[in-house]
Amino acid sequence: MNSTEAFRVPSFACRHCGATVVLPFADLGMTPLCQTQIAPEDFDKPERYFPLQAYVCTQCWLVQLRDCISSGDVFTENYPYFSSYSSSWVQHAKCYVDRMVGQLGLSASSLVVELASNDGYLLQHFAPHAVPVLGVEPSRSVAEAAQRKGIRTETCFFGRDTARALRDVYGAADLVVGNNVLAHVPDINDFVAGVKEVLTPGGTVTFEFPHLLNLIRFNQFDTIYHEHFSYLSLHAVQAVFRTAGLALYDVEELSTHGGSLRVFGQHAGGVLPLSHAVAALLEKERIAGMLDGHVYARFAEQACASKRDILSFLIDARRRGKRVAGYGAPGKGNTLLNFCGIGTDLIDFTVDANPAKQHTFAPGSRIPIYPPAHVRSMKPDYLFILPWNLKEEIMAQTAYIREWGGQWVTPIPEPRVWTEPVAPVQEG
């Protein structure tokens, strides 16, 4: 039995189009929720595990997880992910804000609404331009961090009803922003319909999300986790927008998060002209086989091949007496650690800049998480970068490991050893 036959196709309806024709995409086994940390006093207590299985709808080509947990289980009041701990991501947000203010003519009479605004990493950059903003963030801990910065933030899950209520209080938005949120919502139709409700007639919505084409092409199986209910191609997003009464008018390919798309939308029938980039990228996806079930069926074996390569590298390093430490404790890292069965037998510890994660243990693997200074103290031979999408930033911050001959390792698309930091890619 091959890996694509190893899990039964369940009977469930596509969360976008309602079709029941779905094919297996990836089976990463049973894993705990990726953004949980284990406190020392809970080390010996059991964890809850959930099936991590993704399927593709052969009607609208939306890749999606089975409905086994709710968004409320994932995005808790003490959600530990704070966007501002990545300086490159904050700079990416600033470049975007500066561009949108000029491109859309935003002013003191405008309103910008960001969905999943986190700790204000993006909205803070509108203040120098005197553009009013509103953040919508379901997790209280990060919403309060934004509020402490003076950023007006509502703590709630977004959808059609919420959008109407927010519009009644604050007015309609000239720009709606959603970075790395579209994949995180269980009811994608209701979420995008909410955008239509809150958007002014001539307004623009932009979403950024990891591009499914890159996930498949570069074996990015670790970006599959319970927070990500959907995995998105431009074809799938165009279909979701059309259902909600919105229309794409432009798209850009970005390097962030291993290769992302930034899409621009407006109300259906809007006045902004359709960019040639939309048709070009749709054709690129078609040529790559994104409308062919065989491409999706092969991915499960790609993930297993990556798992074997990662384990081979770590086992060989241990046999040679090398010490391996991790850098970062992201959601994708926890998928990788649990799918590959990696524990402290292969990685001694990991570090993270977020104080909320320090002096805890990673879920499932029980690998201890320390502050970044622990790397200098322990002097590992290899620094295994779990948030590999931030490798340039992390390598620059940890260039000191070369003092003792340390090297960096990125696991995706296959294990690669780096002896020198790499230059960052600049984009807005």
TrEMBL record:
Superkingdom, natural source: Bacteria
Phylogenetic classification of the source organism: Bacteria, Pseudomonadati, Pseudomonadota, Betaproteobacteria, Burkholderiales
MF term (GO), any: methyltransferase activity
Name used for this protein in its record: C-methyltransferase
Domain Methyltransferase putative zinc binding, chain residue ranges per copy: 14-75
Keyword annotations: Methyltransferase, Transferase
Gene Ontology BP terms: methylation
The C-methyltransferase domain, residue ranges: 256-413
Coiled coil: none
